[in-house]
Amino acid sequence: MDLYPQRNPLHPANRLSFYLSASRAFLGHLKVAQAALELDAIDVIIGYAILHAGVDHLDQPGGDGRRYARLDTPPPDESRRPISVSALARSLSLSRETVRRRSDHLFERAIVSRDERGLRVTTAFLTTPTYQTIVFSQMEPILGFLLKLGYPDEPEMGDARAWLDQQAMLDRARQFSRIMLRVQLRHYETLARLGGDLHSGLLLSLILSNAEGEVGQDGATSRLQLAEALALNRESTRRRLVALARSGSVVRTTAGYRPSSDLLSGAKLEGALADTSLNIRQMVRLLAVHGFVHEPHPAAGVAGRIAD
Fold first, then answer.
1. How far, CA to CA in Å, does 203 sit from each of 59, 91, 197, 208, 257?
2. 194 contacts 272 by C-beta, under 8 angstroms
3. Of 2, 103, 180, 250, which is the most exposed, with the fewest CB atoms less than 10 Å away?
């Protein structure tokens, strides 16, 4: 099915499909990371946030992003900044106790280290085959998303096959992964606003995606399917689904849960659509700024005109 007949994801007829395609790309990578690490979705996102806090400064103006761009050049501990449990909780809209308990689990797995200043992903983990698997698995769904969509509201960008430098992605896979990490975490912030908390937002995004694909009867998704997709506790998932139904965001049917008409026409989803459009525009600008767009192509100039 051609979700974007006018090649403009910001066209009103296409905006929901654009949001869902972006969400599927990010959640698809999340699922791969869950399986590789044997963690649930929230644990993985907390790990992502710790990693992002430690390395995002590398790709800021004047940073050492290119120095630590390849998979065989992980930034050393002294180059990565720690983040406190409280700051992490605020950034993810999670309780401090949830973050503390889950970061303890990541510490026990030797994924993160901790000291009086806070938490950091360990250098040892950043050199593991598991981490490299996660980096390359990140490329497939996000690259597929970019190749399918072209570029929002800029028809001269055309098909991403013409402007995206895929060789640079492979050569500087670690830097590409850092950029995508920033974009993914912004998407999870969008989901938290949509659902009221991160867990509920992840559930809503899956329910919306499955309703469009009509994977179940009447486009509904069962509680078991939702819990298994995120590897999250079934009872906790049940409680959040009950709350979402009470708030009018979802409707429970005999087959499971589907989005309500209030959700589909409401301000929260409209906000999520706008946030996602902006996030993807910023993503392509970052790719251009860091040399992942072929310079001779008009796309480089288009992306360079867009403010962060």
1. 32, 19, 10, 9, 10
2. yes
3. 2
Provide mean pLDDT across the span 198-214: 86
> Token pair of 194, please?
């949509």
Residues making up the chain, counted from first to last? 308
- In this predicted model, what pLDDT tens digit does every residue of 264-289 receive, in sequence order? 888 999 999 889 888 887 887 888 88
User: What residue spans define the domains of the chain?
Assistant: 15-304
- Pair of tokens at residue 235: 């009872």
pLDDT in tens, 166-177: 889 889 999 999
Per-residue pLDDT of 249-269, as tens digits, reads: 999 999 899 999 999 888 999
